[in-house]
Amino acid sequence: MPAWPGGPCPQCGEDMPANLVHCQTCRELLNNDLEHDTVEIPAFHPLKELAVCSDAYPVGYFFQCPDCRKELRVHKKYLGKQVSCKFCQAPFSLKIDASKAVSQGFYTQCPHCRKELRIAHKYLGTVAACKFCQGHIQLLEKPADPV
Predict the structure, then answer these.
(1) Which among 71, 73, 75, 78 is positioned nearest to 59, based on CA atoms?
(2) Which segments of 69-126 are extended strands (E)?
(3) More exposed terminus of the chain, fewer Cβ within 10 Å: N or C?
């Protein structure tokens, strides 16, 4: 089957460039070897809906007081600072990997339903589902630096 060499359309006479299948004006087939029914239009199959995955970052952490052993919910702005327990007033320094005060997990808001989630550190860097709305969440340690 030779390609259309270019020239006037056999139907309307309009000059058409080379390598076309149909006339751009009247849609006539330019190659005599082709027939109108040789191209079958495939059936439409809708694609499976992709899950929306939103990023979530720790808002704060759960620590155990080194003196009274009660759990404290602490915002991330206090990391690395000297704080005191709200139950026994014992002072201690907050670090995620410190030997005296070890974080037991963190909390964040679901970006889909805005409910607070308590999450273990082992899930950082993974994709999880919200226990309330089943929305997909990518749990990241900190926001990426702008480029």
Answers:
(1) 75
(2) 71-75, 82-84, 91-93, 103-109, 116-119
(3) C
Is the model's pTM score more than 0.90? Answer: no
The residue extents of the domains of the chain are 1-40, 53-139
Closest CA to 79 of 141, 125, 130, 140: 141
Task: Please give the share of the chain, as a percent, with pLDDT higher than 70.
Answer: 86
pLDDT in tens, 55-89: 999 999 998 888 999 999 999 898 888 899 999 99
Q: Are 112 and 54 in contact (CB under 8 A)?
A: yes
Q: Which of 57, 37, 40, 45 is nearest to 117 (CA)?
A: 57
| Whether residue 120 has pLDDT greater than 60 | yes
* Residue 96 pLDDT > 80: no
Q: How far is CA 78 from CA 64, 92, 113, 141, in A?
A: 15, 11, 26, 16
**C-beta of residue 85 within 8 angstroms of C-beta of residue 71:** no
Name the nearest CA neighbour of 98 among 116, 119, 83.
83
* Per-residue b or e along 121-138, where b marks 16 or more CB atoms closer than 10 Å to that residue's CB: beeeeeeeebeeeebbbe
CB atoms within 10 A of CB 110: 19
